[in-house]
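Lay summary

Proteins are chains of building blocks that fold into shapes. Our project writes down both the chain and a compact code for its shape. Here are two examples, one after the other.
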Amino acid sequence: MTTESVRMWRAPGEERVLLMAGRTARYAMEPRGEYVFGLVDGQPMRSQRGRERRLVRPGQLVAWDPTCAHEGSAVDGRPWASRLVVIEIADLAALADDPESDPLADVEFPEPVLSDSALAAGFLRMHLALDSPSSRLEREERLAEWLRVLIERSSAVRPPRTVTSARDERGLTIAFDYLADQPERNVGLDELATAAGIGKFRLIRLFRERTGLPPHALQIAHRIRVARRLLETGETIAHAALATGFADQSHLHRHFQRSLGVTPATYQQRFNARRTSRRASGSGKVARGPDSGVAL
């Protein structure tokens, strides 16, 4: 890309993926063993790959395989915005493969411009997770699951689906306990699947079927539960965030408020106000305050 407004980075702990985001009016890329996936926004983009010419509209995805060089240019000189991921062939196989199915090979996208709102929304969630404080489990889960869905829907190669086996129940219980027993650990998706003895995509599916949540969401719920206990004992918010595996205090704040509807500071204040009120009542005094008696 040929503009200073484009950022490039690799997410912490996920060195297999190069990420880009920004605005540009022109780009040219000659992939050498790499896939390029992206979401166009704001303005349309004219693309060219070999003799193929396409107009990519805002909201559409692109999925360029390594078979040919490609380039893009602005329509009427108006720059477009985009988010991109670049993944090498071997890394795509590692991320989207599953030990319970045949290995992926020669993944190609005959139609590289995709109009799929659900797939686009999933790409945006995945890209934002790789661009903000998030757990290793969430990053790996969103990336692997999105790639798997993309290949299933759009590639000339379709991964075979597996049939539920008798060991699923035991494996799922092991995975539940694994996350509950050590919520502060930065567990990865492959690690969790290995512990459960289940392929990672089967594990994600089983989690959704049984709990309505993906694995990373259950991990966050356990972390919030432990953080609440720490705040109730008077620990600082910063210490509670560090002790429960959140990236920082703001990361805890975001998930805490989303989960309980209040900030960690408000939760701690209200918990302490109720405890103070009970002590005062026990000594024959009446304590009143703006937060007294407020139930969460």
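And here is the second example, written the same way.
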Amino acid sequence: MELSILRRSRFPYAAPAWPTGLEREAPERKVGVGYDSAWARRYPVRLARAMVVDNLTRPLAHVVAAPEVRGEESLDLVDPPVIFVANHASHLDTPLLLSVLPVSFRHRTVVAAAADHFFDRRWKAHLWAGALNAVPIERHRVNRRSAELAADLVTEGWNLVIFPEGGRSPDGWFQPFRGGAAYLASRTGRQVVPVHLSGTWRLLPKGGRGLRRGLTTVRFGMPMRPDEDEDARRFGARIERVLATMADEAGSDWWSARRRAAAGTTPPPTGPDASPWRRAWALGGDPRDAERSDPGRWAVETS
């Protein structure tokens, strides 16, 4: 019987046949945090992605979002690989950020993406791993596989983009931060570069039905490292304060935002505790026009 099965299956020149009398288990679905994205970092795929990003994604992002980049000179002070930590309000954030990175960073960067959203199906996992060099990260609980994958990639020389809020903001304001970025920086010893993205929520908001054209601003902050006596929790809080100052700057100016930061009066980036229309009004309109206003006013009024 065994000989007849082998003959019918042409083994070893083809896959062996499964005996009809035995029940066969369904193949394991390699999705979510279990998805293997290593293929997306092989040279042929990297080359194809670089062609797409440079010749399609980048021009489209500049046409749709017209990004104004500020603070890019701070990237001259870092020694790659680095961890980019950014606020997150739109699916436009990732391609926009990748499009404005210098070439030396752009094609050597992986993106931490929610395993339960971008990697829940195989076709989506293939798409986002190939298009954005995304890797699956568990966002709802601590996952050893996710943490080790991200740390290993940084150690291997890959820059990492991570959104510490764990998901897109529903109204453009910050959500509570999680400690993954600070933990990875402490574990790998690499620098953190804070990035503030403004204007993307109005172009492609969460739950929105279409993409609109508009103006955006991408701000790069000064690179950061944890102090010798600073654990990941305190370093994460410091990163959050820096991004809050950068958000304040987006609504006022550099000097005013730094004065408020020094005085400990930076408006909370989570927005006012008010009705949705009030929060939308306080967020402002066009990000470049908003820089003529002072967000400290609503902070005083609602305190």
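What can we say about the second shape? Residues 285-303 have pLDDT under 50 and may be disordered.
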